[in-house]
Amino acid sequence: MNTDNRYHWQHKDLLDVTQLSGEDVRHLLDLAASFQEINRRPVKKVPTLKGKTVVLFFVENSTRTKTSFDVAGKRLSADTYSLAKSGSSLNKGESLKDTALTLQAMGPDVIVIRHSSSGAAAFMADLLPCGIVNGGDGWHAHPTQALLDCFSLRQAWGDSFVGRSLLILGDIAHSRVARSNVHLLHLLGVKVRLCAPRTLLPAGVENWPVEVFSDLGRAVRDVDAVMCLRLQLERQQAGLLPDLAEYSRRFCLGAAHLELARPEAKVLHPGPMNRGLEISNEIADAPASLVLDQVAAGVATRMAVLYLLATRNDGGNA
After folding, report:
1. CA dihedral defined by 259, 264, 265, 266, rounded to 10 degrees?
2. 201 three-state secondary structure
3. pTM score, two decimals?
4. Residue 5 in contact with residue 30, Cβ under 8 Å?
5. How does pLDDT run across 4-31, given as a tens digit for each residue?
6. Kind and range of the H or E element at 213?
7. How far apart are CA 182 and CA 12, in angstroms?
8. How far is the C-alpha of 29 from the C-alpha of 25, rounded, in Å?
9. Closest to 303 in 3D by CA, of 100, 58, 30
């Protein structure tokens, strides 16, 4: 594992990509690349975090993110423990504060929290001395998803982010993935475009560092990558969409759209995918798709995050 002992990670927690500098991001991605190499070995386990404890506190349902953090912790030899709302005292009316203090009394080094309320991770970070990782909070932020997306793009692009263009397509308004990616990609020099129905654009989007489109054919022209977002079907029930078939006709990424992008353009999706609604089967399974690369990148990137937070006070961490 290649590390730079001259670099000292300054952050107790990872709550949002907005707290990170360009140097932080580059160091984290370099570290993830080292862990990616470990994940390709026949024996995918190292003793790096032996004796450390990671608690996965997922109040909101998750499969991919939770499993990814669990695998990441175990491959670093950390002791990982999972707690869901259904199995916690929150389900009996206990406050988040009391649950957090109970978890802290068990001596964890890092707690990963996913919560439906924006700011829940920051609340725990202010309350507890251990490291807190935001595994997604409301519509606010999902920092490790944005980091793994950038790691996947770096594998395809190398370090040449500046001047690249990427389109985020779909339900921007309700997407913490979109918010985190817009900030991180802009920080790295990528020109970001958004494309969505007007009802699925967030308030104040005119103040974001993006270019907004309503026509997918125009939005996708000459971009280097497209990131499709999952459309939650309850958006139609809420009256934000007149008809799912109409949405698919206008905003489902297909082969004809990708032909308008630059040669070698890549496609990303945080998953799970609604095939035929936001992305066609043909594109989801095409060589241009980085969807499975994102899954592998998620483990490596989260290994880097857990390592940096769990060893921050050990002296001489990377």
Report:
1. 120
2. coil
3. 0.93
4. no
5. 556 789 999 999 999 999 999 999 999 9
6. strand 210-213
7. 23
8. 6
9. 30
Distance CA 32, CA 102 (A): 31
> Cα–chain-centroid distance for residue 287?
22
195 SS3 class: strand
Token duo for residue 267: 């496609």
| DSSP reduced 3-state for 107 | coil
Among 271, 285, 200, smallest CA distance to 234 is for 200
Residue 316 confidence (pLDDT) above 60: no
- How far is the CA of 261 from the CAs of 115, 166, 195, 220, 271, in angstroms? 36, 10, 14, 6, 22
pLDDT tens across 108-158, in order?
999 999 999 999 999 999 999 999 999 999 999 999 999 999 999 999 999
Using alpha carbons, list the distances in angstroms from residue 121 to 100, 117, 196, 270: 10, 9, 28, 21
User: In terms of Cα–Cα distance, which of 83, 87, 85, 86 is closest to 104?
Assistant: 83
pLDDT tens by residue, 41-97: 999 999 999 999 999 999 988 889 999 999 999 999 999 999 875 555 555 557 899
Tokens matching residue 99: 């649950």
Instruction: Report the 10 Å Cβ neighbour count for 55.
Output: 21
